[in-house]
Predict the 3D structure of the following.
Amino acid sequence: MEAVPRVAFGVIADIQFADADDGHDFGGSRRRYYRHSLRLLRDAVRAWAAESPPIDFVLQLGDSIDGLNARRGEAEGALRQVLEALGRLPVPVHHAWGNHEFYNFSRARLAQSGLCSRPAGGAAGPPDGLCQAYHCSPAARLRLVVLDAYDLSVLGRDPDSPRYQESLRLLREKNTNEDLNSPADHLPIHPDASDRVCLAWNYEAALSVIHSHRCVVCVLAGHLHDGGYCLDSHGVHHLTLEGVIETPPESNAFGTIYVYEDKMILKGRGRIADRVMQF
């Protein structure tokens, strides 16, 4: 192993904090530790801040607060606590937007919040100003692309907007679930890194774009709280992180990824295992 990585960054997903007693998932069978998730985030921040050499940035892969906050009128306060915890880091934090962000906030609100993390000089995605997609270069010969997996969605959109109507047409065409609020069919983009319940509908198109560029080495995602991994037929690593929200208080679920010339090494904590991903 080289003495010093080209870049190192923290990764965490599905914090889903709410100042609420423990609950359960959509199906009622999996325990969710709403209040403890903030403590686990703070533990992760302390670990990242103590790393030597220091990390360069952190990826927060979506669902930072739980949709429960919207029903309790506590969305702003919950988000403030999560951002305060991450704000103790001396490095940038790149945020993805997940479904729970949109249960709590409109896109317009998110675009004005601390979860809008496009850096100065970072190239933007679609021009409506309400999309989180962007790319930037945190180190030489390394490009980070943050995708907005809910860009085409009724979540967070004004019902009168063309984007909402386009999304509604797609939803009616694709959603075969009796319960329209069922989580089935939507966010990792490779079926072997997902349980196929959490798979993006247009994953084949997304993979086609990724495979057309030989420079892509890894796709990171959240949303599937059990996590997942595969190395696809084009040599691209697909890593889905275990979710903090379903992590018992005595454990954790975060990691640090070290990028070298020929590989990425994941040092996992708690539920997240160590992994070497060769290029």
